[in-house]
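COURSE: Structural Biology Practicum
ASSIGNMENT: Worksheet 4, Part C
STUDENT ID: 0417
INSTRUCTIONS: Below are two proteins. For each, the amino acid sequence is given first, followed by its structure token string. Answer the questions at the end about the second protein only.

PROTEIN I
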Amino acid sequence: MVVLAASIISKSGKALVSRQYVDMSRIRIEGLLAAFPKLVGTGKQHTYLETESVRYVYQPIEGLYLLLITNKQSNILEDLDTLRLLSKLVPEYSALDEDSICKTAFELIFAFDEAISLGNKENVTVQQVKQYCEMESHEEKAHKLMMQSKINDTKDVMKKRANELDKIRMEKGKLDKGYSSISGPRVIEKTFSDMNITGTGFGSGSSVSTDMDSFVSKPKGRPSAAAAAPGKGLGMKLGKSQKTNQFIESLKAEGEVILEDAQPSSVSRSSPLLPSDPITVTIEEKLNVTVKRDGGVNNFDVQGTLALQVINDADGFIQLQIENQDVSGLSFKTHPNINKELFNSQQIVGAKDPNRPFPSGQNETPLVKWRIQGMNESSLPLSVNCWPSVSGNETYVNIEYEASEMFDLNNVVITIPLPALREAPTVKQIDGEWKYDPRNSVLEWSILLIDQSNRSGSMEFIVPPADPSTFFPISIGFAASNTFSDLKVTGINPLKEGNPPKYAQRVRLVASNYQIV
């Protein structure tokens, strides 16, 4: 007898679980299973069907069929015996409905494999199959018991050693107390002024040790006035030793990040420092770009904002004179309280009511927004190409970037998704630095600055075989100190008498959502 496949299907012929025991394509087995409901009759508990090539031996189990597909030369009695064994195994692992069968598919397949080997029925019972699937081993249990016994013995030894150390410490403490009682009491009347300590440090070594011993053993009570009064000098200077500083410096040289102790100061306890300039103008553009991996742009959107921060109310009576580059697809929107006619005609940002100042405080107030649409791929600040190729049991991934001459990019981070890996990928070559994040399964390629010296760069790494689509979408982050619109404030005009106030201007371009898909 040769069992070609053991399957569980629905009444409509939908395959829920199927285990093939001979070399058979998926299309072939799906075709055989789909044809079965059309051939089956009704009113029989155990029956079979024959076609030109195979024999179906089946048994209805509630709303499902348990089905064996065999060749026509197999022994029908052995086929029925195999079918009865499988019909007893199925309820042991799953309820007789489609959802339960799908959830326990692997358990059923493992049980089928224990009952049928290479198409032939094994001489096993249901209990033996369950035992084999549970993989219980007496040797394994004995090994675990032995390892647990060793762990318990080690813990007992550690507890005994800890008790011995505690006894030694207690005896040592008793000896120290006995020695101090023998030496007798001393009358201590020395204060900070009596000790040989100057404003810049200690005096001679002998006087310091004697005075410090006396000071430590001074009886409790209210300190004298001289002791409570702070000294005029700098006092004792406490700090890290030279060896510690050298060790920290060596760690820094090796690239380790050292968090040094924060020194308490009046500045840290006070409120945050106010901006040095009374007026600050922030011009920011955010990029929302989606580029196709094979070329072309799905989305290229630039959104900009001009925000104003005024510290004092008196400095809020101003107007901003701006200028920008003439860019195709550029459109502006102003705040409802801004004089639109003045802005459109003279590019001056001012309030509708001249007697009403701009809001003051620590928060920025957006005054003008703009948007640039319709730009093509040639205007991209940064282009990234990814070339994965499978060679044997490895996937070689080559990634290259090309930056535009328009911008110098800072803090560039290119994030490449990876398949699930046990170890970090092997980086063969890189222009910049890399970091592997196993939790998110991504590789981060970092370039601190892209300028005229490195407008292009590449990286190559190796991972196990993977689908090329695994390495997409690639996310890119960066910042620049100039914008597409090149908008800037050229001057500030006061509305009241007096000199124009000082102001600071910050301009930045940020990639808020920049992806290669």
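PROTEIN II
(use this one for the questions)
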Amino acid sequence: MAKGEGGEQYSNASLLSKPGTADGIKLAKNHEHRNRLSVCNKICYAIGGAPYQITGCALGFFLQIYLLDVAQLDPFYASIILFVGRAWDAVTDPTVGFLVSRSPWTRFGRMLPWILLSTPLAVLSYFLIWYVPVFDEGKVIWYLFWYCLFQSLQTCFHVPYSALTMFISSEQKERDSATAYRMTVEVLGTVLGTAIQGQIVGMANAPCLPGPGDILSELSNSSNSAGLDNTEPVISLEHTKAAYMISSGVICSIYILCALILFFGVREQKESCRPRSEPMGFFQGIKLVMGHGPYAKLVMVFLFTSLAFMLLEGNFALFCSSTLGFRNDFQNILLVIMLSATLAIPFWQWFLTRFGKKTAVYTGSLSVIPFMILVVCIESSLIVTYIVSFASGVGVAAAFLLPWSMLPDVVDDFQVQNPGSTGHEALFYSFYVFFTKFASGISLGISTLSLDFAGYISRGCSQPEKVNLTLKLLVSAAPVCLIIIGLIILYFYPIDEEKRQGNRKLLQEQRDIEADSETDSTEMANMV
């Protein structure tokens, strides 16, 4: 929208407003007060985002290494589970978004019932993902079933929760503030997920199995170790399995607590007095949201950048334990990354307010590239790895915050250009999550399959050189290329700060006119 064009619409809308009577001023103040969120409301809303990040972080960082080294599945079957599970998860997102958009309004709202009812089964299915069944032949089916079921149920939680952003307040400033609270809690959730899963499992990490090369090396050095007592506490694979179940039980308890706080601590606001659009078909909904140019560009940007960071997330634990040799420290390295990201969230919130969201995306994404390159070029040094990981966390924070901060701007832009089409917020959020999860499925499937082709050895103390090279490509070269592609697409993203502010003014005028009409209707009813 051109600058002059937006100003003309603003003037016309202003001419339609009523004179500033005492009743009108009072109504405006009441409307503004009703849309203002308390700190408690924002915190309760933000806590609702923790379960998705806690479980997602635990699955993203540890599921691959769990399937390979604890469940001891062949890398090929592990890649099938990871890809099919995430692909199924991606397909369910637009489906759930479509169903949510057609859900009737209840006294609890339209989004909150989905969140509450999906929680019990989601918790059960998550717990069973981390249980190793006693039978061997059906293991692949076991993990595939519970993984797909959990992803479906979590979608029934996360899609309504994401769309809830548009229903906690009609004020863009309040939504942005609540989003900042949410992103802070979600990054804290990733820290919590990494800490719970990593530290509990790290205390019961079963020893690796020496390969032929390791055995020869041990024999050649046996004379040097003669007479030394090398006995250590024996940790078996059964201890590791039990540790994974304990950590999943703790995470399930937190999941339930967060869902209850969200349900009882947030009030979902009913949509404005404008009638909702007629329900549309599923494919018609796809055409509607993907036909909006800014939304399509934003989705493509974060499809590539999300794929980059998910490649890094899914393979970094294996990279640290196998290539760098930090088998007993990788969980602490992951925790450092997440702690750094948590500390950087307030900085990025200030940065995007000061310099704009597009500039923040460029700065945040480019800042992590040097460290992705450095981590594979340096020699295996634990101290240097910690330093690089801490610096990388700053860029990871930008990847967490900025997509969800920009998505409401696209929804607002759609509402400005299509004032008669309402009630489609869940579709916008669900398709965005769909592409993000589809990227995750591709990254996990391809990376695990690549390790199979390279000759990955389950629980091996050392890996073939091809495996080490593959891991370096998966955590460095591939993510860097994907980030650059995403930033090139971002150059053509049309919503800058000027247009965002213009959309905010136009939407506020639309709401004022609707509130004015509602007042007129109330006065007429009272007169009658």
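ANSWER KEY EXCERPT:
Q1: The mean pLDDT is 77.
Q2: DSSP finds 18 helices and no strands in the chain.
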